Q: What sequence folds into this?
């Protein structure tokens, strides 16, 4: 850039900081009038400046910010590879699709193979199993951790089982010790859905570092945001190349956007039944997608990741305060518990309304919402009850009794870093008042 361009860019970024300070002034919290959301974006002028900085490059696909984010995010987990994509749901799709690659030879997942998962959760943890012509095997969850019931793993096993794909529910790690032992014993792949759990720790080790591949979401509700966006994490370099192929149209070439001939033999390959020397940029080794993120999204992530540790600690602090202040309501609610040997990175605060309570979940939800306190159900409840899965083929272990209980009795409230102590106190006061509804 020219000296004048540098000067103008600096002026634009300085004005951006002034604009953010003026436009996004903190507002006083007024109980009953100000909304208390379950989640939301938490950002500052640095995040907006990074976005504007990227936009001034007008490099509209992946570029310098994407490369930096992938490096920074992999370093956060002490892993070799982070692959940026356009959403956490896309990350889940690519994680499982990559395991179907012929490149993996005898460990390739094939149509009709089974993947163990849980019936309680978010649909896009399960949908890639169907979308890749595999068979979900649904097991139940534990209450009050809301994670996979590991006592059902052996019952779920068959001669077709090839993988386990489950999420760390609301930032609470599932029992990775048991699951990893099970996967190693039977030579199964493990996909960790960490979309709600960035920074969670099990046995003094960060989640996303146990399985073959892990996934993360950067939707505004999550631990850091790009608006949309997601990532995959792996230490396996072969798997990283396969994931990038599936992400980038299925092509065999690994050149970055705008670059040619990284391999040094662009016109020297001979793959499939193509003619010798067919352009490697237009040679496809997988039936892939286009699931790339943009550099502008990545630019927000580059700034947000600097705040990640603080965000995680604030979520834990908010969770612990809620649990302490709600402990006297245990006759009405079952409060959440961390999985043994873990330190969750909480996404939300799940609450089970006991059948012996004087009110139903529906009543307490309406009461909270009437006071402008946001609530959410535990995602899809028991997913096999959802209309999307009618007529689909899957196996079920047991009666999924706990998953049905979650569907009928559980909701969650927020712990995200944007919640202030007065907001938390108002939530606590309202839940205490619920005794009389």
A:
């Amino acid at each position: 850039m020219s000296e004048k361009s540098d000067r103008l860019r600096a002026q634009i970024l300085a004005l951006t900081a002034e604009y953010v300070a003026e436009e996004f002034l903190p507002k006083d919290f007024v109980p009953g009038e100000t909304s208390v959301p379950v989640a939301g974006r938490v950002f500052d002028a640095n995040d907006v400046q990074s976005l504007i900085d990227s936009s001034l490059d007008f490099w509209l696909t992946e570029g310098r910010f994407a490369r930096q984010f992938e490096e920074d995010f992999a370093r956060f987990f002490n892993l070799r590879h982070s692959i940026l994509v356009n959403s956490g749901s896309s990350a889940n799709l690519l994680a499982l699709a990559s395991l179907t690659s012929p490149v993996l030879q005898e460990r390739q997942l094939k149509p009709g193979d089974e993947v163990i998962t849980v019936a309680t959760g978010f649909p896009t943890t399960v949908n890639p199993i169907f979308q890749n012509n595999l068979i979900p095997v649904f097991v139940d969850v534990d209450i009050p951790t809301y994670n996979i019931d590991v006592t059902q793993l052996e019952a779920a096993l068959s001669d077709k089982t090839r993988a386990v794909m489950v999420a760390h529910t609301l930032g609470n790690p599932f029992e990775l010790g048991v699951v990893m032992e099970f996967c190693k014993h039977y030579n199964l792949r493990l996909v960790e859905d960490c979309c709600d759990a960035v920074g969670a720790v099990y046995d003094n080790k960060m989640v996303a570092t146990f399985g073959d591949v892990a996934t993360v979401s950067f939707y505004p509700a999550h631990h850091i945001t790009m608006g949309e966006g997601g990532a995959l994490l792996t230490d396996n370099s072969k798997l990283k190349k396969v994931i990038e192929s599936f992400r980038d149209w299925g092509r065999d070439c690994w050149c970055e956007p705008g670059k040619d001939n990284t391999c040094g033999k662009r016109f020297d390959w001979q793959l499939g039944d193509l003619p010798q020397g067919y352009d490697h940029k237009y040679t496809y080794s997988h039936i892939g997608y286009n699931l790339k993120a943009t550099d502008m999204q990545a630019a927000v992530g580059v700034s947000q990741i600097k705040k990640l540790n603080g965000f995680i600690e604030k979520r834990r602090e908010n969770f612990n305060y809620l649990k302490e202040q709600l402990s006297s309501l245990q006759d009405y609610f079952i409060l959440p518990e961390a999985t043994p040997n873990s330190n969750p990175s909480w996404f939300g605060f799940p609450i089970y309304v006991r059948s012996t309570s004087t009110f139903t979940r529906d009543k307490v939800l309406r009461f909270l919402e009437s006071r402008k306190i946001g609530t959410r159900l535990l995602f899809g409840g028991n997913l096999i009850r959802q209309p999307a899965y009618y007529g689909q083929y899957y196996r079920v272990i047991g009666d999924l009794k706990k998953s049905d209980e979650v569907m009928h009795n559980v909701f969650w409230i927020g712990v995200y870093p944007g919640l202030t102590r007065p907001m938390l106190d108002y939530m606590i006061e309202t839940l205490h008042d619920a005794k009389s509804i």
User: Anything to note?
Assistant: The chain has a mean pLDDT of 96. Residues 308-436 form a domain with the Aspartate Aminotransferase, domain 1 fold (CATH 3.90.1150.10). Residues 3-23 form the longest helix (21 residues). The first strand starts at residue 81 and ends at 85.
